[in-house]
Amino acid sequence: MSHPDPQQPMTRVADTVARTLHSHGVRHAFGMPGGEVVTLIDALQAAGIAFHLARHETAAAIMAAGASTLTRQPELLVTTVGPGLANAVNGIADASQERVPLLVLSGIVDRGTRARYTHQVIDHAQMLRPLVKASFEIEPESAAATVARAIALATADPMGPVHLDLSPAIAAARAPAALPVSPPVLVRTEIAPGDRAVRVLAGRIAAARRPLVIAGLEAARGGAGPALQRLAEAIGAPVLSTYKAKGILPETHPLALGGAGLSPLADRVLLDLVGRADLVLMVGYDPIEMRIGWMDAGGAPERTVEIGRWLPDHAMHHAGTRVVADPAMLLEALAGEVAPAPGWTGGEPAAAKAALRAIFETPAGVGPHALIDVLNDVAGDDAIVTVDSGAHRILLSQKWVARRPMSLLQSAGFCTMNAALPLAIGAKVADPARRVFAVMGDGGLEMGIGELATVRDLGLRLTIVVFKDRSLALIALKQASAGLASAGVTLGDTDFAAVARGFGGHGANVETADDFRDELEAAGQRGGFTLISCTFDKRAYDGAF
Questions:
Q1: Which of 11-20, 96-105, 187-196, 409-418 has the lowest mean pLDDT?
Q2: CA-to-CA distance for 279 and 414, rounded, in angstroms?
Q3: Per its UniProt record, what InterPro entries does this chain match (predicted)?
Q4: Which pTM was predicted?
Q5: How far is 50 from 41, CA to CA, in rounded Å?
Q6: Which domains does the chain have, with CATH numbers?
Q7: 191-235: pLDDT as tens digits
Q8: Residue of 351, 415, 424 lying closest to 385 (CA atoms)
Q9: Terminal CA-CA length for the chain
Q10: What are the CA-CA distances from residue 236 to residues 51, 258, 314 (Å)?
C-alpha cells in the first residue's frame, strides 16, 4: 500500500475544482465568504483566480457578468450556504436573461449532517431550478469532470448560469488521483460562398428593394460587426439593434439607426420603417430585450429571415426562414456573394435617422440630455459605459453614440436596478486600462451603495455619475400616464458627494453642464474613484422618450 509523501502538499478536492476552472479560462471570482467556502477561496487564490470581495451577493453576480463581457470567458460567483446563495438570486436571474456564462459555486452543509440538521439548510438546486441551466453537487472522484461539464453547459448557446454545490468536508478532502479535464480545442466549420444557405439568402437579398437588419447581442458578442457593415453597405440596408448590441455598426454611420425596444417615441419611427421593409434580416437577435410593441415586428413570416447560432424558443415573432449558423461567418460569406444594390431609393432610412435625432435633441437648460451630451464628448471611443435601469437608461441608450460593440453595458433583458455599479466594477477588474463610467439614478445607487466600499478596496479608478432627480422617475412617469396619483416614488435629498468621500473617494455635486465637464475631465487624472452627483428637476424626463 502506497502512502502520501509528507513533503508534497496535499491536493484537495477544492484544488482540483480551482485548477479546472483556471484551465478553462476563469480568472476572477466575486462574492462574500462564509465558513463553508473558506477552503475553496484558498484554492482559488492558489490556482491564480483572484477572489474579489463584494458587499452583496447579487452585486457580486453582476460584477462577474461585467468581467465576463470583457474577458469573453465564464467568470465565477462564490456564495456561502443558505442566505448567501438566496441573496444572489436576483443576480443569477439577471445572468439567465442576459445570456451570461456565470458559474455559481455555493457552499453547502456536509452530507452527513444535512439529513438531521436544519440551520441554514435549503434545497439550493430547487431554489435555482428556473434560473440555471443545470445544478450539480461536486464529489471527489468526479470533481474535475463535473466542473468541466458545468463550464461546457454555461458556454453552450444560449449561454447562461450553471450552479455547483461544494460542501466543506469534500472541499478539504484529499483529491483522488485523476487525469485533469482540460478544455477541448474548438474547430469551427467555415461557411463557403457556395453553401446552399448562402445561395438562398443571397437570392432573397437580390430580390429585395427595401432590406433592413435588426442586430442583437449574439451578433455583437460574436464579432459580426465588420461583416455586417460590409453587407449593409453593399445592399443599402439600415441597421437597428437591441440596446446590448449598440455599436455593432458604429452609430456615426449613416445606416446606423441606434437601439430599439424601450422608447415609445423611437420605436414609433423604427417600427414604421420595419413595416415598410420587404426583407428583415434578424441577425443574432434575441427579443428578450424587447417589449410588447415588438411582438411580430418582422411582419409577415415570408419576409423575415432569422440568423443565429441556436433555434429560438420564443413566440415574439415568426420567421419564415431560420438559418442556424454563426452570424459573423454567414454574413462574411454573404457580403462576398451579393451584388451591390442601392436599396431604399426613397431615402426612408435617412429620414428615420433625422426624425430620431430631432426627437432626442437636447433642450435648453441643464438636464439629462445635456449631461449625456457631455459624457459623449469626454468619454472617448474606447471607454466602457454602464447604465442602470430607470428613465436615465432609456434616454442614455438613445442619445449615447456607440462607436464599438459591447461598450454600453446594462441589464437589458432582466432590467434589474443597481446593475450599473457592479457591471462597472467587473469590467474595470477585467480590463484595468480602459476608462469605465457607471451612470446611475439616485434610487439605484442607494439600493447598492455599499459597493462603493468594494470600489475603494479594489483600488479601482472608476467614474460614477449619479443622475439625481430625487425620484424613481420612470415609475412616476408610468403613474402619471395611467392617471394615478404619485405614490412611493419620491426620494429624500442624499448628499452623494459626502457619501463618496466617506467611502474614500472624491465626491462632487454639480448643477451645470460646464461643471460636469470639468469634473469628468479631472476624474480621468486622479487615482481612486470619483462620484459626480448631477442634480436636475425630474420634470426634465417629461416627454423625453
A1: 187-196
A2: 30
A3: DHS-like_NAD/FAD-binding_dom, THDP-binding, Thiamin_PyroP_enz_cen_dom, Thiamin_PyroP_enz_TPP-bd_dom, TPP-bd_CS, TPP_enz, TPP_enzyme_TPP-bd
A4: 0.95
A5: 9
A6: 13-172 (3.40.50.970), 196-356 (3.40.50.1220), 360-541 (3.40.50.970)
A7: 887 888 899 899 999 999 999 999 999 999 999 999 999 999 999
A8: 424
A9: 75
A10: 48, 16, 29
